[in-house]
Fold this sequence. Notes:
This protein is an alpha/beta fold. The protein contains 11 helices and 9 strands. A 5-stranded parallel sheet has the order 7-6-5-8-9. Strands 2-1-3-4 form a 4-stranded parallel sheet, sandwiched between helices. α2 links the parallel β1 and β2 (86-91). Residues 71-72, 143, 149, 152, 182-183, 236, 238, 276-277 line the site of N-carbamoyl-L-aspartate.
Amino acid sequence: MVPPAPSPAAAPLLRYPHRHLLGIEGLSPAEITWLLDLAESHVDQNRRPDKKLATLRGRTVMNLFFESSTRTRTSFELAGKLLGADVINMQVEGSSIKKGETLIDTAMTLNAMRPDMLVVRHDSSGAIALLAQKVDCSVLNAGDGSHEHPTQALLDALTIRRRKGRLAGLTVAICGDILHSRVARSNIQLLNTMGAMVRVVAPPTLLPREVERLGVEVHHDMHAGLEGCDIVMMLRLQAERMQGAFVPSLREYFRFWGLDAEKLAAAKPDALVLHPGPMNRGVEIDTDVADDIDRSAITEQVEMGVAVRMACLEALTQPYP
Ligand code: NCD
């Protein structure tokens, strides 16, 4: 008897099937796993003294950051260089944007120089998807407004998977300024897609309306929200996106919402603490927790960021169907 053909869902993914990486929304579990597996293969390689590869030799990656960034921009630059690509950092300060050029005109100018990839960060949600429609090369979203930050969610997932061995079935509490956070949105998408249970823990003023529709459990109390969870993901209070007062005072915010040893005690004894950085110590997280090498994986997240961004750059330079 002829065995039945494998279902499409069971077929292994041979390559990343999209031209761009604009968000986690729309990626399948197989696509996410494929990116994480590829990233995993770079972790040990990056720890060797002789770590440079030639996979992207001859390719040009342009970093175009309209919003300030330390770790994400450096991480993309290093990832590109480790793969042998030529990486160009566009300094937006002092560029034509400051002289009144529009986002699209800048993109078209850069596009005419025939880069293979544009890595873009912008303070408006949706701006990068718009830009992607206008250029010939692949576009990678390095954070757009409060919408998505896909490589952050992937690096968080890689950190969790390495420490816990899986994503499915874990309970993850995402705490703090969910309203303004693209990190939260991408993580909710990814964790739900991969079968984790997601809780959001925040004061009502820092939650988007109808947040339950994202498929999360909502808590307005840190003790209840952290009870029995495997992962505690803290978020920065994003003052730059706030118009008006969202919290009474920073001291009060820390008292009710800041992660300290006492609140962390509600989580599982081996619960892992994450934070995307930059951290406001004493506002959303206590220094003792942030620096506790047994509980906090914050430095490891930064390391995983390079491996994940290498995987994403490679994925987007493969020919897509
Ligand atoms: C995040 C960002 O820019 O969205 N940081 C980062 O990429 N490392 C989170 C933040 O700024 O709070």
